[in-house]
Prior knowledge:
- Helices cover 74% and strands 0% of the residues.
- By secondary structure, the protein is mainly alpha-helical.
- The relative contact order is 0.13.
- The model is unreliable at 136-142 (pLDDT under 50).
Amino acid sequence: MRKLTYITLFIIGLLLGTLLGYLVLQKVIASRGGMDMSGFVNNANQLLQQKEVIDPLICAKLAMDMGYKIDNMKLNFNLNQQLTPFDSGDQSAFYLLVYLKGYAFGLSHHYIDKKEQYQTIECDTRFPWLKKRPHSQQASIK
């Protein structure tokens, strides 16, 4: 009888501990502002509508496809600044950046005439910082 009581208490304690752990974990995630899947999808969709976020990525891929060297540091710095409001401390901005790059690169990959699309988006005039220049040209620009 005594053994049965200990086993029953153990199982009840295990179930209560699991339930309590689950509730505490949910509260911790919610308090950190964790971005669940619906939050990610909503934020990604919002960013895809913003031309200042998606166009530099499309231009970068089109430029690379045409053989230009890209200044990835400036591209990432620019995008990180725009994604800062979406960073809640759990790398959500990084995941959005990876998704947006993949989306934009896939989108630009399907363009048949890349040079025409590059000119249509006006990549050279809107994003002159995108292409790397030879060191001699960089010195003369400064």
